Amino acid sequence: MTLSGNLAFVFIGGEHQVLHLAPVAAAISLRYPNITVECICADGRTAAALHKVAKTMGADMMQVTQITWPWASRMAARLTGIQSSMKGPLLAKIRWLLRNAHAIIVPERTSAALRWFGWSRLLIHFRHGAGDRAPSSEARLRAFDFIFVAGQKDIDRAIAQGVDRKRLSAVGYIKMDYLGTIPAGLRLFGNDRPIVLYNPHFDRSISSISLARDVIARFREQERYNLVFAPHIHTFENLDAASRAEWQKLSEPEHIIVDLDSPKLFDMTYTRAASLYLGDMSSQLYEFLTTPRPVAFLNAHGANWKDDPRYAGWHLGEVASGADNVLDVIDRAFERHPEMVRSQSEAVALAFGDYEGAITRAAGAIAASLQSSQRA
């Protein structure tokens, strides 16, 4: 039978989640002309990112709709000072706007709340990222009819959280499949010093962000390495303009880049250009390691990490106890890297699966899910 229906792809987590799912929306609109594909977002930067994917893939039929935030969302953010508090009222609005959709597909777990607002049709989740951290929000996966992840690691973790294996499918890492067809960007610096990418996580309970100023200071004092300070885009989302300017002052031409919110934080501009990754808990580690290279980590909280599965990635490089020994640890990571290549490649395979063709596989899997629901 000819497959038809209305699919809504909802992006309320920010533009950094677009590349984890939008290419699939574009592929469906190209492959299944009788399916209406609409991408919903609530900010201009996410809308622009969605339009860019549609243009790159030639998906003229993929619709992008930017909706306004409800007054209750704006009030919640004003009262709490936390951007994520805006999502509840927004999801209630989305539930009403999409009442005629046959399925809603999302790249984050907060949208599990659509069930609380009465959504009873297909609800599909795509995991963005493929790190080792196991947040408490993993339990929300039980709200979804189908869960698509990159590789076996996420399947094992979801099962451990009590998710029905029948709901889980590994399709490969969408973002890597998409970016693999796009040439890398221009050089970041006008010299040939090795580039260290420092990418702290936004969750301060596990992040090394408290050490960031000291780490940057160590790089300012030496001339062996260039540095790109590129924290997760959520790290400074609530920062005022004056504080943001203070961070920007730490940059140095042809030596140190400080980037707090540009698309380069997540479009792999920096991970492709860097010679070494320095971080803590971000899944960008595995994006970086698709080409095996030296990695190092900052243990900012004195974590007993060696037998903790949340820190599995730390076994792929060297670990510093703080800013004082970070440069020595980076030197050692370069020296010992040949010993790490095999384990790095195995870790990426476990996290990302076979990411070539992931977009096509994911598009086909969503279509099959829709067809199955229409037959039921």
Termini separation comes to 14 Å
Number of strands: 13
Q: Note the main sheet.
A: 7 strands, parallel
Q: Fill in the CATH topology of the largest domain.
A: Rossmann fold
Query: What is the radius of gyration computed over CA atoms, rounded to a whole number of angstroms?
Result: 21 Å
Helix/strand-derived category reads alpha/beta
Note the total helix count.
Answer: 12
Portion in strands: 15-25%
User: What's the domain count?
Assistant: 2
Succession of helices and strands: EHEHEHHEEEHEHEHEHEHEHEEHH
Query: Percent of residues in helical segments?
Result: 25-40%
CATH class categorisation of the largest domain: Alpha Beta
What's the overall average pLDDT, rounded?
91
Name given to the CATH homologous superfamily of the largest domain: Glycogen Phosphorylase B
Return residue spans where pLDDT drops below 50 for at least 5 consecutive residues: none
Shape, principal axes of CA atoms: globular
What tags apply to this protein structure?
12 helices; 376 residues; 6-stranded parallel beta sheet; Rossmann fold; alpha/beta; TagF_C
Structure in words:
It comes from Novosphingobium panipatense. This is CDP-glycerol glycerophosphotransferase (TagB/SpsB family). By secondary structure, the chain is α/β, with parallel strands linked by helices. The protein has two domains: 5-173 and 354-375, Rossmann fold; 195-352, Rossmann fold. The chain contains twelve helices and 13 strands. The protein has helices spanning 22-31, 44-57, 71-80, 87-97, 152-160, 174-179, 212-220, 241-248, 269-273, 284-288, 326-352, 358-375, and strands spanning 5-11, 35-41, 63-66, 103-106, 122-126, 146-149, 168-170, 195-199, 226-229, 256-258, 276-279, 295-298, 318-320. The strands form two sheets. It has a seven-stranded parallel beta sheet with strand order 3-2-1-4-5-6-7, sandwiched between helices. A six-stranded parallel beta sheet has the order 10-9-8-11-12-13. Helix 1 packs across helix 2 and helix 1 packs across helix 12 (358-375).
